[in-house]
């Protein structure tokens, strides 16, 4: 076996570390307000060094929002694999979504701020709507099975549920060693069983 | 009794209607991204006609966020007047806050997007923190009285509650004749008693 040659000179960026910096900058200044020039200054590398990794700013946006959306759709897929009652699948979905949010916080934050000015943004919004329909259908099923209170419209219940989940980006900041599991517990307790003792 | 003379020429703006247009524009383009020039173009009046009503763009921001904050603090004040258990006062506070949000949607939306770059913004953030402390104290009291589940930290419960309330700005659009009371009901049902049947 051979070992790869040691890297020379100052540490470079790979696509992953470049993406981490880009998503942070997009969240601070807005995607529209961030230029490749800003990004190259922040990274301390030339624009052509960035273009070595990625063809455009919009591609950085696509990779960033897909990081969030792929996480959410993996949870949706694992939810569909489950047997049993819809309410339990719904809880699995909410819990998993909080874990994705906690694990990929800057990517989910960016996704939730996307407003649809570019093709990538419109496509992200379309995937969000698809996810929302999945949630609403699950609430409807759970209500049909008698496990969700019938006095809240399923579409409203779905929005309140994910409104609560999404609002976490406003204040949740991960601590070292925390997986977001406690947070997911708290959200599920409040949303499904209520704060009342 | 005398009647005021009829207004001449094209309809003008009073401070209130000017504010309605300004807050809409701030929400669309961001406060920083909106100039008095933009506002005068949108209104179809000169900048000096705007300055007749209000001395600066920052004053428009102050009036707008105060419209939201004053509503929330009126609800807090009426909550403090109530006797009885803290959980009931907390529910009164949540319900009243949803009604303020539904009634003053563009103003609350602007308030929740304020990030603190100017004196007015910093002062708005300070009042928001004061409101948050009020909520957290009420959750603590309710927990001490045994009415809130003890397995969620009061500060987390307070944030989840108002995360749910604040998330309404993302999707709620008032309909004619709707007071937001149904929405307030749905929020209180989910947050205090849970979605589970």
Automatic annotation (TrEMBL), chains A, B:
- One Pfam family name is TetR_N
Q: Which residues form the HTH tetR-type domain?
A: 12-72
Q: Which UniProt keywords apply?
A: DNA-binding, Transcription, Transcription regulation
Q: Which residues bind DNA?
A: 35-54
Q: Where is the signal peptide?
A: none
Superkingdom of this entry's organism? Answer: Bacteria
Q: Which PANTHER family match?
A: HTH-TYPE TRANSCRIPTIONAL REGULATOR BETI, HTH-TYPE TRANSCRIPTIONAL REGULATOR RUTR
Kindly provide the name given to this protein in its UniProt entry: TetR/AcrR family transcriptional regulator
């Amino acid at each position: 076996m051979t070992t790869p040659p040691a890297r020379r000179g100052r540490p470079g960026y790979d696509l992953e570390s470049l993406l981490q910096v880009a998503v942070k900058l997009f969240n601070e200044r807005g995607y529209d307000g961030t230029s490749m020039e800003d990004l190259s200054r922040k990274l301390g590398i030339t624009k052509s060094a960035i273009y070595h990794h990625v063809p455009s700013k919009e591609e950085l946006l696509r990779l960033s929002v897909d990081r969030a959306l792929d996480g959410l759709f993996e949870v949706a897929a694992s939810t569909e694999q489950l047997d049993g009652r819809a309410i339990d699948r719904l809880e699995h979905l909410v819990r998993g979504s909080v874990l994705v949010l906690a694990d990929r916080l800057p990517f989910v934050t960016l996704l939730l701020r996307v407003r649809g000015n570019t093709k990538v943004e419109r496509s992200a919004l379309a995937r969000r709507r698809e996810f929302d329909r999945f949630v609403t259908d699950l609430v409807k099923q759970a209500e049909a099975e008698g496990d969700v209170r019938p006095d809240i419209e399923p579409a409203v219940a779905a929005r309140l549920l994910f409104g609560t989940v999404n609002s976490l980006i406003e204040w949740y900041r991960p601590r070292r060693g925390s997986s977001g599991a406690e947070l997911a517990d708290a959200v599920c307790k409040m949303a499904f069983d209520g704060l009342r003792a």
